[in-house]
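Most newcomers find our protein records easier to grasp once they have seen one. A learned vocabulary of local backbone shapes supplies the integers on the structure line. Here is such a record, shown just as it appears in the course material:
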Amino acid sequence: MGYTLDIDTGGTFTDGFAVYDGEARIVKVPTTPHDLTICFFETILAAADAFNVSVEDFLYDADIIRFSNTIGTNTIIQRDGSKIGLLVSRGMGVLSPTTEEAGRSSLIASDMVIEIDEETNGYGNVIQKPDATKVLHAVQILIDQGARAIVVSLENSHLDATNEKNVRQIIKNEYPRDYLGSVPVFLSSDISARAGLEERLNSAVLNAYIHAKLARLLYKAGEDLRQKGYGKTLFIGHNNASVARVAKTRAINTYNSGPAAGLLGAREIGALYGIDNLISTDMGGTSYDIGYVRGGQASYALEPDVEGFSCNLPMMAIRALGTGGGSIAHIEDGRLRVGPKSAGALPGPACFNLGGTKATVTDANLVLGVLDPDFFLGGSMRLDLNKARDVILRDVAKPLNLSIEEAAVQILETVNYGMGKAVANVAKNFAAGEDPVVIAYGGAGGLHACGIASEAKTAKVIMTPFSSVSSAYSSSLMDVGHLYYSRAGMELSENIDRSVLKNIIAQKWREAVSDMRGEGFTEDKLRGVLQLFVRSRGGAKDVLVVAPLGFYDEADALSDVMMRTTLALKEAGEITESGVWLETIALMVTAKIPHYEMQALPEKAANVSEAIKSYRPLYVSRKADFVKTPIYDREKLGRGSVVEGPALVESDMTTILVADGWKMTVDKFNNAVLEEV
């Protein structure tokens, strides 16, 4: 097996997790927001350097490169996506995302939405075809007004997509792909086969909105790799915890793909200990992402909120808070606020000395001695303590009549309180006695793990040696996968229509075989599982039930699926006495690729004192002020090592603050386990 490399771009840093012959290396480079292909390639350079080889040799011997990025999320937040023209059924215009929010423009201008006359009955019968002349007239108006993509979302297309396909064909006949004036056309039926007019419309619009920027990034990244000698597939991370090649990636599938990978990694870490109830927390430079695993199942949203827009495209459920190392501290109405605005990678926190002029969480950690100005990222980046003190004095200390240190403490307490309450709210998803363990990661995760856990009243926190690049590490656990949706519309019972269901699944399996052949996998390497979207008859809420292929042909399997469906619906507050309806079916097909596996450390006596590399003043509390605190080298803490707080544990990529009243134990998997004493 050659090199494998997983890359995840965040708002402040881009992380890499590289493996060769079972040996893992982690790297971190500043994100380049103006062109993410730059930090993408700089991560490859850093990975090659970590193994002492040239980038050409690294890429020649690389077998797998996986890439997750935040461009979709950032494009939606910043409202700098493609200008969209929208065609909808008569009366649907009011559902369009044309409303402006405070400080942010709408996704679509109101004059870029045109209603057309069409109708289907949802059973394969077209009642009224779209008029070709009127469609072309509408499209020409939209193009003349600057549309760079056309979205078509018609009323019953989740039941019958005929009219949406008719509209696309009308447009393509006039604007064929081989003409420079060709305009991309996106159908809502291609994005979602589920009910929900507004949700399906939003999903299609969001996909089109971020498509062009993402396509430019991914195709350029792929071309750069080919020019440097990489001859394999560039796999793109998806928010359903799988990866696929660029040509089989829809833009909306990449939204939140990094945090989704992190949740998958947290589940795998829990599995090492037989823990199937856990909360994952990822604190990076710009956000704090929270997910959970209950009973071994990762949190999943059937109708996710995508930056304020309701969608019906299921994805792993991650709650994001605008709090990270780069979050800006400011006074609002006489009170201290931290975030959601971030200094990002550029200009970054003031202490980065890259032009940042605002007080941030990172500046506060530096002022209090939690961070070493000469050993940030292993010394590759020097922090400016004086600039950190100056901005905290100006922005927080003076307005609140506090000392610089007291102001810095308030910044960290504000952050820990907010994130701790968010973790406590997620913990409410667990029943009494399930007691979830927190898996903490992210570049800033170790700085705040104890403080957040204290606020959330969680008993134990686990951090891996790869916590600073955890989404990249977790990406290494992903297999190649494709998800295929189809409308079912049938009763789920002992008398289920087996022939119709079998035909639906067979058709989707054929698509999967063809797609996977393009990924380099033969049919015998494929595995499939079904996702059933069911609701009580006449109900309004779907639940998701996982089922094996062919469950409908085996009495015991069908009975098990029906039992789990009934329990899931009752838990969701739905009444099932009138029967259960199978709305939509999805086929998830995966092909396994090699994963990194954690190895147990050898058993040997731990001499913790030998791991102390220095001491430095740490602001422990308002009463104690600065206290001389031991600094431990994380690489020298072996299996069984116990560090009592207050202490700092440093590695090249991150720092763990072991707070007063806490201890950190290095376990057999080289994970750091934080617990209150």
Summary: The mean pLDDT is 91.
